[in-house]
Design goal:
With 283 residues, this protein is α/β, with parallel strands linked by helices. Helices cover 38% and strands 14% of the residues. It has 2 domains: 38-165, Protein of unknown function UPF0759 (TIM Barrel, Alpha-Beta Barrel), CATH 3.20.20; 169-273, no CATH class. It comes from Streptacidiphilus alkalitolerans.
């Protein structure tokens, strides 16, 4: 039984020399991260499609059971809004082919303006995703959370192709006013939506954003440790991503989340031992 956990990125300045070895060549950064976590959000692909050589290096740095969620490029999800996207989608997926089974799902993050009237477009796009490639959809339009009718219609669209609805939980961030600049930025940029913890498939995906205070972050994820434990007992294979506003501690917190779930479900496999941050010493 395996629980996959990770962060929003695999290279972060705040981790260097403290959690990850430093310096590290670009072609070694994902390998070092993968000694801490067994999944990562592929946010980089949202902003630009990497070169084929870069993608091959990602494959070389990770094992086949590592989970990488590839975010659909912004020009497709936000520019074209999924319409007439066959050619750019095919080109993107062709570049990603060297990753093989590491591509856990195609992550389709949609703008807040993508609402109920766009469900037909979403359905048509999902039916064009190649068979064998999972999709997970992140919506931010309030109607999908506040109107049961539209929630059910979206679930039917996703269910028709076996796609998941990404749970993006920002309730901890907005529970109390921000205490520093990083939290104020999160207040300005993150969607303020109700928590949703209903799994549609056997591979649910959760994105949880905590606070700068580690204690408040762990208190805020209590709902998820219990939910994830239940999903594992049901035979599901969840993936959970832990964020904080500045992400300086998210790598360690992701492992802590894994430890807390493993305490509830002892059959969960342990994570690998992290690489040392410096050379070995005699004492």
């Amino acid at each position: 039984m395996k629980l996959h956990v990770g962060c929003a990125m695999w290279a972060h300045t705040g981790w260097q020399g403290r959690l990850l070895p430093h310096p590290l060549a670009p072609r070694e950064r994902l390998r070092a991260y993968a000694s801490w976590c067994n999944a990562v959000e592929g946010n980089t692909t949202f902003y630009a499609t990497p070169s084929a050589e870069t993608v091959r290096s990602w494959a070389e740095q990770t094992g086949p059971d590592f989970r990488l969620l590839l975010k659909l490029p912004k020009p497709i999800s936000h520019g074209l809004r999924l319409a007439d996207a066959d050619v750019p989608l095919r080109s993107f997926l062709q570049v990603m082919e060297p990753l093989g089974p590491r591509v856990h799902a195609l992550w389709i993050q949609l703008p807040a303006s993508f609402g109920p009237s766009d469900l037909g477009t979403l359905a048509a796009f999902l039916h064009r995703v190649p068979r064998g490639l999972r999709s997970t959809v992140e919506v931010r339009h309030p109607a999908f959370f506040e109107d049961r009718r539209w929630e059910q219609r979206l679930e039917r669209v996703l269910g028709d192709v076996g796609a998941e609805w990404t749970s993006f939980d920002t309730t901890s961030v907005f529970a109390t006013p921000p205490t520093n600049e990083a939290e104020r930025e999160a207040w300005a940029k993150k969607p303020r939506l109700p928590r949703r913890s209903r799994a549609l498939t056997d591979r649910p995906i959760v994105r949880y954003i905590g606070r700068e205070d580690a204690r408040r972050t762990t208190e805020g994820w209590r709902h998820w440790t219990g939910t994830i434990a239940d999903w594992l007992r049901e035979g599901r294979s969840p993936t959970v991503f832990i964020h904080t506003p500045d992400n300086d501690d998210s790598l360690a917190l992701a492992r802590r989340f894994h430890d807390e779930v493993r305490a509830l479900v002892p059959g969960v496999e342990p994570l690998p031992e992290p690489l040392p941050t410096g050379p070995p010493t005699l004492f």
